[in-house]
TrEMBL record:
InterPro entries: AAA+_ATPase, ABC_transporter-like_ATP-bd, ABC_transporter-like_CS, ABC_transporter_ATP-binding, DrrA, DrrA1/2-like_C, P-loop_NTPase. This is ATP-binding cassette domain-containing protein. GO terms for molecular function: ATP binding. It comes from Streptomyces parvulus. Residues 326-374 are annotated as: Disordered. The lineage of its organism: Bacteria, Bacillati, Actinomycetota, Actinomycetes, Kitasatosporales.
Length: 374
């Protein structure tokens, strides 16, 4: 195979054409509708975060955009080429790092990367050089000659990511790059993504973590049941949800409503009650002092609280605020509760995408914040 010329990701003009465009993507598996019409747009050189719980349709979207799966409807283009009409051209310009690291465990890290480089048509010398560069960049040089089967989860992910970057793709897809990693592995992966972006690569990253999207993404599409239910920057998302959140668990089940009433009276934010967990949560701009005020008011009202937390909003909070319901039971490893479903919830789900103004209206959010619809 002749050695190819790699234009390099830096060749995309800043603010130039969209590197990723998806319009009305639909896809079903048998009777199960995985995608119900997904629209996405990522300018060249930006990071688009696809944020959603398990089963939302993230991997299906990535598989369509990387030409591994055909959509039932809609269209998409990546790096200027239509995924259905020109799959080869798309494949030449992308890298994919999947939810489960694809490394050959019998080979060393160096051999893995050399093999990938050769598969991309590089000469022996170029492949060796590229493998060295990537080992260095992903802090794998010390482990380069060990079989990758003995690597930690974080090292495997780094090796998989390095493999995805071998041919200097213009657009990189990272499907849940940090799920299952320890904090150290997560921090390393985040740094690798930042380095990529500094090179001008366009990145689509899927995640279940609002914080991860916050750290890495220029813009975020929140997806649920195969639809985009909100989009904006992490700041806009958080603003729509409110600042930090106070979450309380009543001592006596059934007093959540009364607790929510007391918190509502303190204002300015409207508390939300999660019927599944029995917890009451409310946004606050004043951190610990607001927490103190809330606890005093509840004590005065003789309402006991079993435990309480003050924390930045999570994906769960975003979902609760956007859809008026918590995430599906069993939709994540830490979410193993069970919950009944009622028609009202179904109705909420069918309403589809919302803008932040709608979210704030419903939840009584602060005034003056700008809308964050595309
Ligand atoms: N190959 C498949 N066969 C049947 N159902 C599938 C298949 N792939 C995905 N699904 C279903 O489609 C929905 C979306 O899945 P997926 O895109 O993997 O979600 P996510 O990556 O956000 O967790 C889920 O309900 C899932 O069970
Ligand atoms: Mg997935």
């Amino acid at each position: 195979m002749p050695e190819r010329e790699y234009a390099g990701p830096g060749s995309a003009p800043p603010g130039g054409p969209d590197a990723i465009v998806a319009e009305g993507l639909t896809r079903s598996f048998g009777a199960r509708r995985a995608l119900a019409g997904i629209d996405l747009r990522a300018p060249a050189g930006s990071v688009l975060g696809l944020l959603g719980p398990n089963g939302a349709g993230k991997t299906t979207t990535v598989r369509i955009l990387t030409t591994l799966l055909r959509p039932d409807g809609g269209r998409a283009s990546v790096a200027g080429h239509d995924v259905a009409d020109e799959p080869e051209a798309v494949r030449e310009r992308i890298g994919l790092s999947g939810q489960f690291a694809a490394v050959d465990e019998r080979l060393t890290a160096r051999e893995n990367l050399y093999l990938v480089a050769r598969l991309y048509g590089m000469s022996r010398a170029s492949a060796r050089r590229r493998a060295e560069d990537l080992l260095d960049r992903f802090a794998l040089s010390d482990a380069a000659d060990r079989p990758s089967g003995g690597f930690s989860g974080g090292m495997r992910r780094r090796l998989d990511l390095a493999g995805a970057l071998t041919a200097r793709p213009a657009v990189v897809f990272l499907d849940e790059p940090t799920t299952g990693l320890d904090p150290r592995g997560r921090a390393d992966t985040w740094q690798a993504v930042r380095d990529l972006v500094a090179d001008g690569t366009t990145v689509l990253l899927t995640t279940q973590y609002l914080e991860e999207a916050d750290q890495l993404a220029d813009s975020i599409a929140v997806i649920d049941h195969g639809r985009v239910i909100a989009r904006g920057t992490a700041g806009e998302l958080k603003e729509a949800v409110g600042g930090d959140r106070i979450t309380l668990r009543p001592t006596v089940p059934g007093t959540a409503g009364a607790i929510a009433g007391v918190l509502a009276a303190l204002g300015p934010y409207q508390p939300e009650t999660d019927r599944r967990t029995g917890q009451v949560s409310v946004a606050t701009d004043h951190g610990a002092s607001a927490l103190q005020r809330a606890l005093s008011a509840l004590e005065a009202a003789n309402l006991g609280v079993r435990d309480v937390s003050l924390a930045p909003p999570t994906l769960d909070d975003v979902f609760l605020a956007l859809t008026g319901r918590s995430r599906e039971p069993g939709s994540s490893v830490e979410d193993l509760g069970t919950r009944g479903r009622d028609p009202a919830e179904h109705h909420e789900r069918e309403r589809g995408e919302q803008d932040a103004a709608g979210t704030r209206r419903r939840a009584g959010r602060r005034k003056g914040a700008h809308a964050w619809r595309r």
